[in-house]
Design brief:
Layout: H1 2-16, H2 40-55, H3 61-65, H4 69-78, H5 93-106, H6 142-154, H7 178-197, H8 204-223, H9 230-250, H10 258-273, H11 282-293, H12 300-323, H13 330-344, E1 378-379, H14 382-393, E2 418-427, E3 430-433, E4 443-446, E5 458-472, E6 475-489, E7 508-515, E8 520-522, E9 527-536, E10 545-550, E11 577-581
Antiparallel strand pairs: 1-2, 2-3, 2-5, 2-11, 4-5, 4-9, 5-6, 6-7, 6-8, 7-10, 9-10
């Protein structure tokens, strides 16, 4: 997916918006290195100067040449003094002035047409080619970059997501990886630009810029989902087509590049081969990195077979560890944990949520990874316990369980009020934690078993996590539960002022920064994903809100029901859950 992450997202930021190359001399449009942006009034002043100097003829050529080259080119092109395609760096200011003076001398009608000025400051003047034409390399001005950097610092991201550099837009942060571009464009810029350019006070130009960028982000998000269907593929293709059409409308000076052409063919690949995770380039890059880190004896004739042999040895070892019913004893637990920790490092950054590493979690024999400590058990409050009972009863096959305080006539097995509180639950590098030391991992989007059809999940913060034990047959089942404080949804009168709702494929909404009165008890299967959180007070709402940017590519890790045919809640198809015990 380098075509989308580096070829499209990075190219949009650098090639169209000029990030990291603002101070370089633009090519093809007559810009001036380090030129000071001119206000609309200053633009008009320079254009009027050209008119007065031209009317004085050749005697004022020296003064005409002192005018900035981009203004001379624009006037010369508009009046036909030079061909429209001739505005390149080969034409000097003197040649441009000569062309204008020759045209004026030979013109039968002594009328000088002037191009319209831009409604915003620009360091590079050119002919306006459309209703939303933009000055090259002045898209993200200093004020917008400053807002973006501040929002990067203030946005709360889960620990598995690498934070972008806080000085984004400066060459000092060095080369950015594909992960960084993905996070910046699909999270940070979504939070900032929709807030700024999607508000009621934004200009028509800013709205056009935003809509074009959102088409790109939506296309990338749809293409990198873990599951695809024809509707999703068609939406991706529609977003990409509209994005490229928008480039030609907004950035007339920019030519489409090969990556844009390739992006239009990704629909065929998605239809033929399914989700991109099965055929993107990351695994090959990982293997290249592994090969480069291996020690060799420089025997090139046997190196390939050695690599291949150890590749198969590693594959067989993973299969052995994943399928063997190891004894349930501390030494084997330690061995399995060491193996898991050694191989989980192969997945880093945002790809933690895109990759299912082979590992212990694929055991066929159910085994609880939780270590419940009775000595650390505490009694739940009646309110939380009541909610816990209601949630367990909604698990398939568990409706017969009863509260400890139920009527004696209820013969169902009683659920204990004792639980052990823990700090976090770790699922193959994706950690869910309570508010506190790991608060950044406590922001989640979720649903409940009795939820009606919702176009956007609920949002909340994990207040507590506890282990609860119940008996099924002759087995004690230990399962984690999450006490979640749910954010309040916007009232109907404020929904029109949520700028993020305009773009449903961004999976972003505003919620009030206020919790519902009652808490919810969730299982791991109720959780969709983490969300990126950003807090601010919209001027039209006048209440502090939280931007919920869903990171739902994690969802596939938890899509399997916790309760399979064995009625054992810790048999997971995709992950092994480890509990980090709370340190007293």
């Amino acid at each position: 997916m380098h075509n989308l992450l580096l070829g499209d997202l990075r190219h949009h930021c650098r090639g169209l918006w000029g990030i990291k190359i603002k101070d370089k001399k633009p090519s093809g449009l007559g810009g001036v290195k380090n030129a000071k942006p001119h206000t609309p009034e200053e633009q008009q002043k320079w254009l009027d100067s050209i008119v007065s100097l031209l009317k004085n003829g050749w005697k004022d050529k020296r003064r005409l040449v002192k005018i900035r080259r981009d203004y001379l080119l624009a006037v010369a092109e508009l009046n036909g003094a030079i061909p429209p395609t001739a505005g390149s760096n080969q034409i000097t200011k003197e040649k441009c002035a000569d062309a204008l003076l020759i045209w004026w001398t030979e013109a039968k009608e002594k009328v000088i047409k002037l191009p319209p000025v831009f409604q915003e400051p620009t360091s590079e003047f050119h002919l306006v080619k459309g209703p939303h034409d933009l000055a090259k390399f002045r898209i993200l001005d200093d004020a917008t970059i400053t807002e973006l950097r501040q929002d990067i610092v203030r946005t709360v991201l889960p620990s598995w997501l690498e934070r972008p550099p806080r000085n984004f837009g400066s060459t000092s942060h060095g080369k950015l990886k594909a992960d960084h571009w993905r996070t910046i464009c699909t999270i940070s810029m979504v939070v900032t630009l929709v807030r700024l350019w999607g508000s009621s006070t934004a200009s028509t130009r800013e709205n056009a810029l935003l809509e074009n960028f959102v088409h790109l982000v939506s296309a990338v998000e749809l293409a990198t989902k873990r599951s695809v269907n024809q509707e999703r593929i068609d939406k991706f293709d529609d977003h990409m087509s509209k994005y490229l059409a928008g480039i030609q409308d907004l950035y007339h000076w920019h030519h489409l590049v090969p990556n844009h052409h390739i992006s239009l063919h990704l629909k065929e690949f998605l239809e033929l081969f399914g989700p991109v995770h099965a055929w993107w380039a990351y695994p090959f890059e990982r293997f290249n990195g592994l090969l480069q880190g291996l020690n060799t004896n420089n025997k090139s004739d046997t190196m390939a077979t050695t690599f291949m042999r150890y590749f198969y040895i590693g594959g067989n070892l993973r299969w052995l560890m994943a399928t063997t019913d190891w004894p349930d004893t501390p030494p084997f637990h330690a061995m399995a944990s060491a193996f898991k920790n050694a191989f989980r490092n192969a997945v880093r950054g945002t790809r933690v949520a895109d990759f299912h590493p082979d590992g212990i979690g694929w055991q066929k024999t159910p085994r609880s990874p939780f270590q419940y400590s009775a000595k650390d058990a505490v009694t739940l409050s009646r309110e939380v316990y009541k909610t816990l009972v209601e949630r367990i009863q909604k698990i398939p096959g568990h409706s017969h369980f009863a509260s400890l305080f139920a009527e004696l006539s209820n013969k169902g097995p009683r659920l204990s009020t004792e639980v052990q509180f823990i700090d976090s639950v770790d699922c193959e590098g994706v950690k869910f934690a309570r508010k506190g030391g790991h608060g950044r991992n406590s922001f989640i989007v979720f649903s409940t078993p009795d939820d009606p059809s919702r176009d956007f999940p609920r949002a909340g913060r994990i207040r507590d996590i506890f282990l609860h034990v119940r008996t099924i047959g002759d087995k004690d089942v230990t399962e984690p539960f999450f006490v979640v404080q749910e954010y309040q949804s916007l009232e109907s009168k404020h929904i029109p002022f949520d700028p993020y709702r305009r773009f449903p494929d961004l999976q972003t909404r505003l919620f009030y920064n206020q919790f519902e009165d009652s808490v919810r008890i969730l299982t791991l299967s109720d959780i969709h994903a983490h969300f990126a959180a950003f807090f601010y007070e919209p001027s039209d709402i006048e209440r502090e809100c939280v931007v919920v940017r869903s990171l739902d590519r994690v969802r596939s890790l938890f899509s399997s029901s916790l309760l399979l045919n064995s009625h054992f809640p810790t048999e997971l198809m995709y992950c092994q859950v480890l509990c980090i015990q709370k340190c007293e």
